[in-house]
């Protein structure tokens, strides 16, 4: 951890009161000149630090940039290795490279930008600089492959709770794993796994989460603008929002992850799943559609009855036939 990161933690923890350069130097085991340089570094990154004569430094305004020190300070009990980047090709791809090189520790990677972000079914994931939060977990769970999908559910619930606790705003979950706010999709989740051929258990699993924190200045691309939204709409900014979201998400996710056998996440998932009780269009489900749209043969209309304990979607078709969907996608008119 750099001196600047250590100074930032001290200033954050003493926000509202000045702390002297001498006190900072003593706590951190460095010179007062090193503290001064650290303060200048923070100012260059957008932090407003006021120097008060004969009293010390006081943090007036925090920048909304990712800080490894800030996040680690709030998540240290989780025991995760953490890496934070300004820009990266893909947080999932980096962790896959780590896993293939023999990394055995559970860890998280966070970035403010992805240049090659990936979504489900080989789609790209819009990950511009400045407006989003992109995080992936590398995990080594003792689970059979059939249970790996539960990690996606855990991630969805953890993210919903983290956003709600940090912002005070409501979220909803669109089956299977999309987080929605104000009628728009604000997040996507991509889970990837590697199994052992011999044992049939997971060697590792990577859970990637992309959140549109702010609406991009240039707006969303044409192909997603009708459905994509952001936690905060254009023009709204908040100090340390990304850091607080990242820390809350790590803590919520790891809490549910460690209690997966108890399925502590299930009730939280069900109460946020806004598809229940609604008519939907099922897209590319894993079973043969019983009634097909003439203009869209891969789609079928259904009514959602509920979600079972494995988070399979319980639907009833127009002919009265019922089914449980374990994969596929749905569309819904809000």
Explain what you see.
Helices cover 28% and strands 25% of the residues. The model has no long low-confidence stretch (mean pLDDT 88). By secondary structure, the chain is α+β, with helices and mostly antiparallel strands. The strands form three sheets. Strands 3-4-5-9-8-7-6 form a seven-stranded mixed β-sheet, with helices on both faces. Strands 13-12-11-10-14 form a five-stranded antiparallel β-sheet, with no helix packed on it. Strands 1-2 form a two-stranded antiparallel ribbon. It is built from eight helices and 14 strands. It is elongated and about 80 Å long. A hairpin with a 3-residue loop joins strand 6 (172-174) and strand 7 (178-181). Helix 1 (3-13) packs across helix 3 (32-44), helix 1 (3-13) crosses helix 4 and helix 6 (149-167) crosses helix 8. The protein folds into three domains: 3-61, Arc Repressor Mutant, subunit A, CATH 1.10.10.10; 68-272, Bira Bifunctional Protein, Domain 2 (BirA Bifunctional Protein, domain 2, 2-Layer Sandwich), CATH 3.30.930.10; 279-331, SH3 type barrels (Roll).
